[in-house]
């Protein structure tokens, strides 16, 4: 016994019942960086294998959604998008919103969808949600290209749209969106391991959330038309991200410093809360999932 | 002078909750949380039964592992053996960090990689080559390591021709070969292997065993090896531990461990006597037991010897021949294998009956089985049905190394008479 006591300092690692309070083991994640890359590659490559249109599917979905929204919300319901063409207005909102939902729904199923592989081998579990966020970022990139194409098209048509100096910070906004989706997704994925109720919630919750996130209307509009319920949108950090990104790209709507600060703080809180719960869950979720 | 301990388990325990995870879970969770807030110990840790599947426990919680301690020296090949449900897989899951122990800790001086089941994380849409990289990375290799061994891996798998074809087009054998090949070229300090030998054809198994011997003997790697296969355990391991109901019951040199496992197993379930449980107006069932011919039922059942099934039953009515016994045999997957009865071959008599039925050598392969008993009146109506009245385990007897290591396909393995005509 005593021989191992005096060398106990040299143990490489220890498996114990509980994780330390905050242990985002970055060193370990770095060791598995190749796995992260391969997961991202797998996610991108396998989705549209054995399809004729292949990666074109990435473009079809936002385009058709934008067309539908333009007809319903702008032509039928008559939502005013100012000088910006409604289609472009919707496409901007939907592209950014899609990135969030893809991150959220993808990561919220982490533990359940991967229970098979998680039950067999160990690797830092955080790799899986990270890979989802990154591969969705690439999909977002592709979808953003189509936005640029239409942007140029409308510009040449003479529509009054102009880029804003703030567009320089657009990547920051997108990363913020990804972190928010990741944090929320990790939180929910942990709860799903025990209480399946949450996976039902996600399905329609995301749809309803879209209407509270100023995707299909300018943020100012809701204050104007529904002053009593405006706070629902007002306290939704997602609405600020959508509104801000539209301001950056199309110069419509407002940019609110306090709104952004609020969004930033909420995102950080959600992310760390999600990480905390995720770390706690990953140790023994396999017994309950 | 001191031993070079690479892995040390200190009072590992693992508790599982039985039954469904449902509404009761929430109240237990809240209760647990309330105790923790007040700085008290988890109240559910104090309760819990020994993990014995066949008896009905009182608690919702069982201990799959209880107070496991062991040390592994560098370069040692430790065999972990035990019957189904003894806690082997749970122990391996804890060692490979898939799940955390409820109490206790494991300290390690080396990277642990596990071969719990080959082929995890294979993506059917990706090609063989892409899957080698993906699977290798999942098992903890870097891209550089895999690239440097890629040719060896492909060569070892013997799937060269298909390497750029999606894995979904592979036969199951080819998938297993490819998966094992990736795993075999892992280079962790500690390798955990669970029952991978029971896959692939005979030729590939030989290759796999050879590779494992290289790993453990040639390269001096530390290996933890879990298997039902006594021949493989005997030839690969240097030391072993026997698990029973979640506790270490024996530890020592591999020869002694194997003979302990095959021999002095006093808690064998191959024997059941009944008091008043089955005392009915027509009959009273006294005992059901199994044993190898010439051995007692305290001993394990070996697949390469004749197995006797003994039934002791009192028939309390005069026309005893109206009644007969029918057994249904189920395997560990719960699949019905066959039924058999004494209706055509042996009439029951009034009073005490001690009847024996025997299964030929190898008829039952190693594994766990469950018997259900039916007592039938006039070959028409079952007057008594008891599901899973006895469970028993047949062990493989340690066939010669180099012969086929796994189970043969199919439920039974009859030994027919072959002759020159």
Automatic annotation (TrEMBL), chain A:
<feature type="transmembrane region" description="Helical">
    <location>
        <begin position="201"/>
        <end position="222"/>
    </location>
</feature>
<dbReference type="GO" id="GO:0043190">
    <property type="term" value="C:ATP-binding cassette (ABC) transporter complex"/>
</dbReference>
<dbReference type="InterPro" id="IPR000412">
    <property type="entry name" value="ABC_2_transport"/>
</dbReference>
<keyword id="KW-0812">Transmembrane</keyword>
<keyword id="KW-1003">Cell membrane</keyword>
<feature type="transmembrane region" description="Helical">
    <location>
        <begin position="168"/>
        <end position="189"/>
    </location>
</feature>
<comment type="similarity">
    <text>Belongs to the ABC-2 integral membrane protein family.</text>
</comment>
<keyword id="KW-0997">Cell inner membrane</keyword>
<keyword id="KW-0813">Transport</keyword>
<feature type="transmembrane region" description="Helical">
    <location>
        <begin position="137"/>
        <end position="156"/>
    </location>
</feature>
<dbReference type="InterPro" id="IPR013525">
    <property type="entry name" value="ABC2_TM"/>
</dbReference>
<dbReference type="InterPro" id="IPR047817">
    <property type="entry name" value="ABC2_TM_bact-type"/>
</dbReference>
<protein>
    <recommendedName>
        <fullName>Transport permease protein</fullName>
    </recommendedName>
</protein>
<feature type="domain" description="ABC transmembrane type-2">
    <location>
        <begin position="53"/>
        <end position="281"/>
    </location>
</feature>
<feature type="transmembrane region" description="Helical">
    <location>
        <begin position="255"/>
        <end position="278"/>
    </location>
</feature>
<keyword id="KW-0472">Membrane</keyword>
<dbReference type="GO" id="GO:0015920">
    <property type="term" value="P:lipopolysaccharide transport"/>
</dbReference>
<dbReference type="Pfam" id="PF01061">
    <property type="entry name" value="ABC2_membrane"/>
</dbReference>
<keyword id="KW-1133">Transmembrane helix</keyword>
<dbReference type="GO" id="GO:0140359">
    <property type="term" value="F:ABC-type transporter activity"/>
</dbReference>
TrEMBL record, chain B:
<dbReference type="GO" id="GO:0140359">
    <property type="term" value="F:ABC-type transporter activity"/>
</dbReference>
<dbReference type="InterPro" id="IPR027417">
    <property type="entry name" value="P-loop_NTPase"/>
</dbReference>
<dbReference type="GO" id="GO:0016887">
    <property type="term" value="F:ATP hydrolysis activity"/>
</dbReference>
<dbReference type="GO" id="GO:0005524">
    <property type="term" value="F:ATP binding"/>
</dbReference>
<comment type="similarity">
    <text>Belongs to the ABC transporter superfamily.</text>
</comment>
<dbReference type="GO" id="GO:0016020">
    <property type="term" value="C:membrane"/>
</dbReference>
<keyword id="KW-0067">ATP-binding</keyword>
<dbReference type="InterPro" id="IPR003593">
    <property type="entry name" value="AAA+_ATPase"/>
</dbReference>
<dbReference type="InterPro" id="IPR015860">
    <property type="entry name" value="ABC_transpr_TagH-like"/>
</dbReference>
<dbReference type="InterPro" id="IPR050683">
    <property type="entry name" value="Bact_Polysacc_Export_ATP-bd"/>
</dbReference>
<dbReference type="InterPro" id="IPR003439">
    <property type="entry name" value="ABC_transporter-like_ATP-bd"/>
</dbReference>
<keyword id="KW-0813">Transport</keyword>
<feature type="domain" description="ABC transporter">
    <location>
        <begin position="45"/>
        <end position="270"/>
    </location>
</feature>
<keyword id="KW-0547">Nucleotide-binding</keyword>
<protein>
    <submittedName>
        <fullName>ABC transporter ATP-binding protein</fullName>
    </submittedName>
</protein>
<dbReference type="Pfam" id="PF00005">
    <property type="entry name" value="ABC_tran"/>
</dbReference>
